[in-house]
Amino acid sequence: MGPSWYLMPEVFGHYFSPFGKKREDYYDLSSLDPYYKVYFEGGQTAKLTPRFDENQKLFESFEKGGGKALKAYMEQSTYKYNVAMEDFLYRDYKHIGQFFNRRLMTEGLRLGVLGKLDSFVSNYVKDHRAKQILEYAMVFLGTDPAQAPAIYSIMTHVDLNLGVFFPQKGMAGAAEGFASLCRDLGVELITDTEVLKVLTEGNRAVGVETNKGTFMADVVVSSTDYHHSDTNLLEDKHRTYSDSYWEKRMVAPSMFIAYLGIGRELKGLEHHNLYFAKDWNAHFDAIFKNPGWPQNPCFYLSCISKTDS
Q1: Domain tally for the chain?
Q2: Which structural domain range is residue 88 located in?
Q3: Contact 152/166 with Cβ under 8 angstroms?
Q4: pLDDT tens per residue, range 37-96
Q5: Does a structural domain hold residue 168?
Q6: Most buried among 42, 144, 213, 214, by the most CB within 10 A?
Q7: Is residue 30 included in any domain, yes or no?
């Protein structure tokens, strides 16, 4: 159940490739067309599609020169994405020095590491509708476009160039594909089990205590929120950060989600639908600066039945 933004398909494929397998061996994937539909406050709508010329015409309808601006924006977005994939994504980061490789040191400004996304986008387009399309993905990263690093302009390449997809049976179908690969390789998967504590010997993690017994291990990997692992699963002497450190952090917000069963077909919707308030700064301020419920919220509506009945 839930949203199904399946992006960056080559990363999912990378999961299978070390074992001589292909994603296609485990689940099917279809490309969405349109990628998504945007509803702007006031009633105007727009569809983003796999056909770049159509997207250019859309941006040109927002403002004169918008189509050319989108092309230029996409070129830098593609460049940043390729750098990220080649030099950053598949590396370990255990200390700050590992972030500063040669590419980052020589081309850091071009990559947009220091600038903010909203200001960066404004160098290309001025119309609020164009800006919202180029910035909306920051919501999924749990941040405000005005505060997100400009390097995240790569997200426009991710959805408009690489495409938006849907796995058979939804994201659960993809998860089952990963699980099937594990089983084929002899992995035992234990689910519906709560980890209560990471067990240690000296400075090494050696296992986990759960509500269904103790499991010893050569390696322990925790994929829960860092805050939870640090404060709830580890003894105080093994924690990386103190309570006072965590209390000062801006933690990415969760979502308010409603599942709605509608007894008729909603013909006006697409698979992915985004609703943007004209002044979405007030929406973000209500979340990040003055935490509360936005008076005129932006929201996302997923209508998966358009693709999978």
Answers
A1: 1
A2: 51-162
A3: no
A4: 999 999 999 999 999 999 999 999 999 999 999 999 999 999 989 988 887 778 777 777
A5: no
A6: 144
A7: no
**59 and 125 in contact (C-beta within 8 Å)?**
yes
Separation CA 37–CA 165 (nearest Å): 14
Residue 113 lies in a domain: yes
The closest of 275, 273, 282 to 304, measured between CA atoms, is 273
Q: What are the two backbone dihedrals, phi and then psi, of residue 4, each rounded to the nearest 5 degrees?
A: -135, 50
The model's pTM: 0.88
Distance between start and end Cα atoms, the chain: 13
* Cα torsion angle, 93, 103, 148, 52, sign: negative
Burial state string for 100-129 with b = 16 or more CB within 10 A and e = fewer than 16: eeeeeeeeeeebbeeebbbebbeebbeebb
**Angle at which helices 52-62 and 128-135 cross, to 10°:** 140
Helix 66-87 to helix 52-62 angle (10° resolution) is 130
